[in-house]
Design a protein that fits this description.
Helix content: 10-25%
Number of strands: 19
Radius of gyration: 25 Å
Strand content: 25-35%
Number of helices: 9
Order of helices and strands: EEEHEEEHHHEHEHEEHHEEEEEEEEEH
Structural class: alpha+beta
Strand order of the largest sheet: 6-7-8-3-9-10
Oligomer: single chain
Shape: elongated
Largest sheet: 6 strands, mixed
Length: about 375
């Protein structure tokens, strides 16, 4: 059977129990006045207490989705439900949603205390309750010492805590985070990631977090939503998205260094690549003239092991990273001159010399000509039919 490359697998996430759904988005469309369609019929169901991360490159629609949920952008079509209540027609203040912005959005002329109290005062909360809530939140976020200060007297990390405190003190049904760590340095970002995750677990508030940083997505999320050109490319746990990417796009976006891609063929279940032939029993009896083989850099072992795919790397550059190193080169026997990267232990290797790499069969990712993940089971069913 030839060219069965149209069948592919998007890892399935079991449907959630309706009574536990906090946020439900149905066929959301957002088209701007200039005609740009930023969001193209997105469906998303989020469990109560779940931490969802929307991730993707600039222009993929993630911020448009977040702002639509918050009510900061009118939607062009679709429906948004919060705890079973339709909210896309409601004003932002009525939605019981708190948002933490990239630039913190603190009032510069107000003290930290007044920034925290502002939303509660507008809602008519009494003074004693405001005091109690602020002291509790300040203790949780360790900002008690800053309550009398103005935002200009705080560090970036302290301002971020205050912005989070202003969201928490409202006790909303939903938190929205719009790239809240992008203005912080690398060390502080890592620290604040841990704080946000710990705090969200402690509060148990359903959260939607937008970022272009795949490390933030992997470390924070219960489930990741990978977006491309205004549509969902894949939804899954960090492990699912990493180990079973639905497409070459997801495979290249999630993971650092990115997955290597090599041209290959499949002939009666035998993978043909770089003058090598490797049998994949799950593809028995199936053939396709053109596919893309994906290999994560850390899955290329620096030894020849029987029953594993063997490839030879012509080493060009070695980048030491401390506990390991990045070995750059090209696979010998391929017309494709693309760079191949292997992550190896920090051991001496000679540059411009060939290095044998071994990859286990369960570490090989096959993608069709459209860049979608190949599914042996689906292909087999089609072959029988």
């Amino acid at each position: 059977m030839k060219n069965n490359t149209a069948i592919h697998l998007v890892p399935h996430t079991p449907s959630q129990e309706p009574q536990n759904v906090m946020l439900e988005i149905k066929q959301l469309v957002k088209t701007y006045e200039n005609g740009h369609r930023a969001v193209k019929g997105v469906d998303l169901s989020i469990q109560q207490g779940e931490f969802i991360v929307l991730v993707g490159p600039s222009g993929c629609g993630k911020s448009s989705i977040l702002r639509s949920i918050a009510g900061l952008e009118p939607i062009s079509d679709g429906e948004i439900y919060l705890a079973g209540r339709r909210v896309d027609k409601e004003k932002p203040a009525k939605r019981d949603i708190a948002m933490v912005f990239q630039n913190y959005a603190l009032y510069p002329h107000m003290s930290v205390y007044d920034n925290l109290a502002y939303g509660l005062k507008n809602r008519g909360v009494d003074k004693d309750t405001i005091e109690e809530k602020i002291q509790q939140v300040a203790k949780t976020l360790k900002i008690e010492a800053y309550l009398a200060r103005k935002p200009s007297k705080l560090s970036g990390g302290q301002r971020q805590r205050v912005a989070m405190g202003r969201a928490i003190v409202r006790d909303p049904q939903l938190f929205l985070f719009d790239e809240p760590l992008s203005n912080l340095d690398a060390a502080l970002r890592a620290h604040m990631r841990l704080e946000i995750k710990t705090l969200q677990r402690q509060l148990g508030v359903t959260s939607v977090y937008v970022t272009h940083d795949q490390i933030e997505a992997m470390t924070l999320a219960d489930r990741i939503v990978v977006l491309k050109d205004g549509a969902i490319e894949q939804i899954g746990t960090p492990a699912e998205v990493y180990h079973q990417p639905a497409s070459t796009f997801v495979a290249s976006f999630i993971g650092s260094p990115a997955m290597n891609f090599l041209p290959a063929q499949l002939k009666n279940g035998h993978l043909h690549i770089a003058d090598q032939q490797f049998y994949l029993p799950q593809y028995q009896g199936l053939s396709t003239e053109s596919l893309t083989l994906g290999i994560r850099p850390e899955h290329a072992e620096i030894s020849h092991v029987q029953h594993k795919l063997a490839l030879t790397l012509q080493i060009h550059v070695i980048e030491p990273l401390g506990p390991n190193q990045l070995v750059h080169g090209q696979i010998i026997g391929l017309d494709n001159r693309a760079d191949f990267i292997a992550v190896t232990p920090e051991i001496p290797l000679a540059e411009h010399k060939p290095l044998t790499l071994s990859i286990a069969s369960d570490r090989l990712h096959l993608f069709d000509q459209q860049g979608k993940r190949l599914c042996p089971t689906s292909l087999a069913k089609r072959a029988i039919a």
